[in-house]
Amino acid sequence: MLPQRIIDRIGLTEGNNSGSACHRRIAPSGGSGSFPTHLDTPPFSLSHHPFSGIAPVDDMLSHFQVARVAADPAVMPRAAKPSGWRGIVYRRLHGSPRMYYSAYPAMALDTVAQTMRETPAHTQQNWCIFDNTADSEATKDALSLLSRLL
């Protein structure tokens, strides 16, 4: 877990997630990965910080085994791609075109499913959290994505 002094210094945010999740655990061929048992969710950082996605920051996140979220909509182009530690790939989809309200069209969910399938084998966990909960679209989108992954 990233030390609190580093989180405070560069303004990263860590925490638990709300919203509906479609989580697919991928066990690497060498065995299953593990995370500290005191965590409710794996360590991650959000992509809203201006330093997020810059190589030295990504290297530091990777060193401390903290993944950076790939967000939709992305607040900056690099925020659309996950970075940091590659043991976890974490996507957070907020709804588009209307953030928190809109459902995702079938083509967008097809694309997310394809990128989840293409996640490297060394990745221990592959997450997609839907945060388009204002009109109850998250659960439908998560179930639709899950059906594409099964």
What does this protein structure show overall?
The chain is α/β, with parallel strands linked by helices and 150 residues long. The chain has a single domain (4-28, 40-149), classed as Protein of unknown function UPF0759 (TIM Barrel, Alpha-Beta Barrel), CATH 3.20.20.410. The chain has four helices and seven strands. The protein has helices at residues 4-10, 55-63, 106-117, 138-149, and strands spanning 20-25, 44-45, 67-68, 70-72, 83-84, 88-93, 125-130. A four-stranded mixed sheet has the order 1-7-6-4. A three-stranded mixed sheet has the order 2-3-5. α3 (106-117) packs across α4 (138-149). It is globular and about 40 Å long. The N and C termini lie far apart (31 Å).
Give short descriptive properties of this protein.
150 residues; single chain; globular; alpha/beta; TIM Barrel; 4 helices; 7 strands
User: Are there runs of 5+ residues with pLDDT below 50, and where?
Assistant: 9-41
Helix count equals: 4
CATH fold annotation:
TIM Barrel
Q: Specify the helix fraction band.
A: 25-40%
CATH top level? Alpha Beta
CATH-derived architecture: Alpha-Beta Barrel
How much is the radius of gyration in Å?
A: 15 Å
Question: Mind describing the biggest β-sheet?
Answer: 4 strands, mixed
